[in-house]
Write a structure and sequence with these properties.
Belongs to the AHA1 family. The protein has four helices and nine strands, in the order βββααββββββαα. With 159 residues, it is an alpha+beta fold. It has one domain: START domain (Alpha-D-Glucose-1,6-Bisphosphate, Chain A, domain 4, 2-Layer Sandwich), CATH 3.30.530. It has a nine-stranded antiparallel β-sheet with strand order 1-2-3-9-8-7-6-5-4. Strand 4 and strand 5 form a beta hairpin. Helix 1 crosses helix 2 and helix 2 packs across helix 4.
């Protein structure tokens, strides 16, 4: 399977993985900064239009924790995710656990590959089973991520 959501290619590398790839017109150092700085994350990591990110905590180091929370402007529909960083290689690779609601933890790996001033960012989420992977796909997560990555491109253009 390979689909494109808001300019982001979504593929299934294995029975338990979802990969999302997008290329940005920015150097890896800038994409990394936008991906790891709370003030910038709050501008683009919003999923579908109309959401806000009132919680954005990042302790960017191996063993450091992260926590994100989203809600509608009136506070309704609020939900959170959290995890721990297991690998932090600036401008190149970020690996963390990802815990959402009562779901088993996933592992997310983000790679940043720069070529000629453009950066291809690939986020690969590894889940515990094919059923878990398929449930995440069915949730519309790739649509929200695609829209968020589209917004990330817009934010990068202003930096």
């Amino acid at each position: 399977m390979s689909t494109t959501k808001f300019g982001t290619e979504v593929t299934l590398p294995s029975d338990t993985e979802i990969a999302m790839t997008r290329t940005f017109d920015a150097p890896a150092s800038l994409v990394w900064k936008a991906f790891t700085t709370p003030e910038l994350l709050r501008r683009w990591l919003l999923g579908p239009d109309g959401w806000e990110m009132p919680i954005c905590e990042v302790d960017l180091r191996v063993g450091g924790k992260w926590r994100y929370g989203w809600a509608q402007p009136d506070g309704s529909g609020a939900f959170e995710m959290h995890g721990e960083y297991t690998e932090v290689t600036p401008h190149s690779r970020l690996v963390n656990t990802e815990i959402f609601a009562d779901n088993p933890p996933a592992v997310s790996t983000v790679s940043f590959v720069e070529e000629d001033g453009r950066t291809t960012m690939t986020t690969t989420m590894r889940l515990v089973s094919q059923e878990a992977r398929d449930a995440v796909l069915a949730s519309g997560m790739s649509d929200g991520a695609g829209r968020s990555y589209e917004r990330l491109g817009e934010v990068l253009a202003t930096l």
